[in-house]
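Sequence only, no structure available. Ideas?
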Amino acid sequence: MRSSPARLTGVLLLLSGGMSAPSSRPAGLLGRVFQYIDLHQDEFVQTLREWVAVESDSIQPVPRLREELFTMMSLAAEELRRLGANVDVVDSGSQKLPDGQTLPILPVILAELGNDPKKATVCFYGHLDVQPARQEDGWLTDPYTLTEVDGKLYGRGATDNKGPVLAWINAVSTFQALEEDLPVNLKFIMEGMEEAGSLALEELVRREKNRFFSSVDYIVISDNLWISRRKPALICGMRGNSYFTVEVKCRDQGFHSGTFGGILNEPMADLIALLGGLVDASGRILVPAIYDHVAPLTEEEKKGYEAIDLDLEEYRNSSQVKRFLFDTKEEILMHLWRYPSLSIHGIEGAFDEPGAKTVIPGRVTGKFSIRLVPHMNTSVVEKQVEQHLEYIFSKRNSSNQMSVSMALGLLPWTANITDNQYPAAKKAIKTVFGTEPDMIQDGSTIPIARIFQDIIQKSVLMLPLGAVDDGEHAQNEKINRWNYIEGSKLFAAFFLEVAQLHSDDLLTDPLSHTPERE
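Reply:
I predicted one. C-alpha cells follow.
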C-alpha cells in the first residue's frame, strides 16, 4: 500500500525532532477518527490556507479591511452551515471613530448543532480577526499566504485564532464523514472584533443569556499557547489589562527645530519623562501603591511553579532574547502570571519614517498598559496612574497640557479547575499526546472568559493548541502542522470524554441535569 503525502509529512515531522510523537492509535471509534484526520490533513491545511488569505485585520479602522472581515465571517458561517448547523449572524451595530467616521462592527456568529436533551452541550468560542501584518515589517513570507516550511505553517492568524477554530470544525466534520453521531451537542460563538476589544460582545452575551446560552453546560476557548514547544497545557488563569494613553500638547501643529528649538517645553521631552517614570530597569512598576492589592504568594502556589516543565534555555532561544530579567524558572513564571507588568507600546504623533526630519511635534500621545492580577481593581489602578503622572508632570514645570485616559480596563480571570471539563480535557490530552498537561496561567488577556464566567456563570475551559514559539501578534506567526492536526484529534477526544462524564453524572443522579432546551 502506497503512503499518502499527508502520512509521509506526519512521519517526517516526528523524525525531525522538536515534536513529541503521539501515543499509539486507540482502538474503536476514536482510532477511526484519528486515522481519518491523519489521512485528510492536507485538506484541513488547505482550508486554513483559504482562511489565512483573508486579511481580517480589525485593528486598522478602514473600510477595505472591514470588508475583508465581513468576507471572513461569511466564510466561517458557510463552513458551519456545511456541517448542518443552524447559523444566526447577529448584527452588532456600528462604531463612531474619533475622526467622525462611522464603521460597522462585525456581526457575531451564533450557531448550534444538535439539541439532544440527554447529551451535554459544549459551546466553543473563537475569533476570526487578526493583528495587522505587512511583509516589509520583517515577515519572511507574505503574511496572508499560508507557507509551509519544515512542518511550520506560517501566516497571520494561523495560531491566533483561525487554526484552533478550524481544528474544532475539523473534529466535528470527521465524526460526520464517518457517519457517527456527535457525542455532544455543540454551539459556536465566533466574533470578528476580539483584537479590537470585542466591541458589543458583552452586550450580546447578556442579551442571549437566557436563550442561546441557556442550555450550555461547558464553554471552551482555544486562544492561548503552551509554555513549551512539545508539552501540552491547560490554562487555569489569565491576567487582566488596563490600557492607557497620555497626551502632551503644546499646539496642534509641529515646530521647526531651528526656529523654536531651545525656547519651548517640547511635548516629546515631557512625554519621554512621563513614560520613563512608569517602570524601572528591573521591570518594577514605579506607580506608588500599585502592588498593594496583589494577592499574596502561598506555599501551595509556589510548589505549582516548581512542577511546571519549562526549559529556560529553550524558552529564551525560541523567544530570540539575549537574557531575561530573572534567572530562575519560578521567578520567570511568577512575573509572567501572578505579578503585574507595565509595557510601553508606542508614541503617536512623533516622526517615525526613514530620513532626518527636524520637526518638533506639537502634540504627542504615549500608549502603555498594565497587566492586572488578582486582586487588583481597574478603577483603583486608573486613579493611581493618573496621580503618579500628574506628580511627574508637575515637577517639570511645563507650560504644555497633559491628559491621561484609561482606554480599556479588563479584570483578570481565574478558572475553576474542579469543573468536570478539566478532567475530561486532561484525559483527552493523555490519549492524544501520551502525557499529562502542564497546568499553567497566561500573562495575556482574553476578555470573553471573564464575561462568560460572570454573566452566564458556566464553566470556562481554556484548551490551547499552539506551541510557545508560535509568535502570535508578531512577525512570522505560525502553527505547526503537528499541533494543528493533533489539536483536531484532541477536540474529537474531548467530545467523547465530556460525553462519558455527562453519562456518568446522569447515572449517578438522573435528576441533576434536566435543562430546558428550546
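Residues 1-19 have pLDDT under 50 and may be disordered.
Hope that gets you unstuck.
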